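Final report, Chapter 2: Outcomes

The project's central promise was a pipeline that accepts a single protein chain and returns its three-dimensional structure in a standardized token representation, suitable for archiving and comparison. That pipeline is now operational. To close this chapter, we reproduce one record exactly as it appears in the project archive, with the input sequence first and the structure output second.
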Amino acid sequence: MKNNAPDFKNIGTQLIADIPRYASVTALNFFQDSFRKQGWEDVTFAPWAGRKDASGTGRAILTNTSYLQNELRITQATARTVKIVNDAPYAAIHNEGGVVSMRITPKMRKFFWAKFYETKKTKWKYMALMRKNQLTFKMPKRQFMGHSKMMMEQMDTWLLKQILTRFKQA
């Protein structure tokens, strides 16, 4: 009598081996899509706060050099954990928001004067002449990576389809 039962153990082992690769690539693409969509998708879509000034008008937010987006990389992909990091020094403040405080140096004042002479915009003159030695501002939260229910639903859908497909083929 011939045994026509599928090799469940082999199908499961192969599926477990494929999950980390799919999950890590899906998460990386999901995070990079945040830059294209200009917002974060979790339960609902939350668009990023716009710019306060007119500099960079017509250009997407957080994409001046694309360095922030290009620094996303997969550091770990196992059956239990997928870890994606961003090594840009300013990634955390953009992703989480917060208060930024920076000391105004003579070199910065020199830069402000150079920008004023180049552009003739008074904002640069005011920055060069300001009496403060400390500049503090609030950076709005512009999340581009983290846990997302939408992303997890995409992965769950893929996994269910893979299970059904692989068992039908067996």
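Archive annotation: The two ends are 18 Å apart (CA to CA).
This record, like all others produced under the grant, will remain available to the consortium after the project formally closes.
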